[in-house]
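Support request, priority: normal
Reporter: lab tech (M.K.)
Component: structure prediction queue

Hi team, I submitted a job for 3'-phosphate/5'-hydroxy nucleic acid ligase from Cyclotella atomus yesterday, and the status page still shows it as pending. I've pasted the exact input below so you can check whether something in the sequence is tripping the parser. The sequence length should be 447 residues. Please let me know if I need to resubmit or if it's stuck on your end.
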Amino acid sequence: MLVNLIGIQWKVKGEVGRRMATLIHSAYSSFRCASRRSYSHLPQIISTKGVPIHLYSDEIETQALAQVVLLAESPLPVDYVSVMPDAHLGKGVTIGTVFASEKYIYPNAVGVDIGCGMAAVPIHGLYKKQLTDSQKVEIFHRLKDLIPTGFAKHNKMLPETKEVLEKITEELKPTDYVMGQLLQSNVTNQLGTLGGGNHFLEIVHCDKDNLVWSLLHSGSRNIGNRVAQHYDQMAKSMLQKQGVDTRTLNGINYMPIDSEEGQNYLRDMEWSQQYAFQNRKAMQRIMLQIIADVTKCEADMSRSVNIHHNYCSCEDCNGRKLYVTRKGATSAAKGQMGIIPGSMGSGSYITRGKGNPLSWNSSSHGAGRRMSRIKAHSNISQKDFEVSMKGIVCDTHESVRDEAPQAYKNLTLVMEQQSSLTEIVHRLMPLINVKGFEKKLPKKYRN
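Reply from support: The job had stalled in the queue. We restarted it manually and it finished. Here are the results:
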């Protein structure tokens, strides 16, 4: 359920409910005069027993807010925790959370898809009206043929994989753990693959000039997952050896940044981030080659954008060296170009950051889910899903229904709520969408 912070009634039981009641009443009292469509009152400041929360929204799921409070009251953050308008419940940490730490690192805050992010580039001289229906269908099928999706991988390494992995390994010097993973074909043959869930390949057009762009969303694939789980267990073990009852931490397993284990995590995390970056570059190369083959038009690489939204980086914060963790959030430093996607039918934005310190120079990473995957399969009919995707060349298999536009928040509203964090440069609307999915609907999604 959603808790509305400017007056809609809500109901939560137990101790969590009592805590949330105090916090929400405080937020409501401070901003009860705010206009529904004016967001100058954001961020809402919510006090906790730890650092305050900066919330860039008028509503948030009860459980998601409870997650943020647990983080704010842990030893990890300094100054404040910022929560983006696309925030929703996540594993361990609410997606859309940004915080800075001086002493500790929290592997599960970065999460299992280390370096997940977006890449976009315009196609020089190619406009929406020039793409025929047959060309769109051809591009769609060639994308599906040449870029593995879901759990699939390439049968052999891409031509650039060996050189790319050698380069980032030499530069970042990951630990023996990552070096051992590199011996497995999952790591080498997954470079240049999409994955599943909310990852996608799209051909889009700018709503102003109709220029066509290539757009994609993906991360570090299986290696990022392995690194995350490896260090989460290591952090938990370290805390237990110190006599900490980790059952009381609600999964917030952290380690000192200056410890050997903390430094090793940073090395392997940075390596995984670069793997994700190169994974997007490899897929983008394939996409652009397909577009060039079909349309004879080339990309304008001078305008390309490739960014993370699940990562941690050491940043200068008003003269302090702090480690800023963005869990489902995009860096929006002043003048920095970004990409904020919506759902598979609602379009995306190319943005320019405003460098707002109240959000740790960050903005949302997307629209954010408004219903879980299980609820989406239960509440969204197949017919409604297909209608919502009319005019877009895509798969509307029932297994993709949890990614329907109806499962996501209103991206226009999300952008309005973060107008103090980032500005819109272009709006991109989908023409072709490719997602990874299993053709047999998992049992948990069946009615």
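Residues 207 and 427 are 6 Å apart (CA to CA). The longest helix spans residues 260-295. Let us know if anything else looks off. Ticket resolved.
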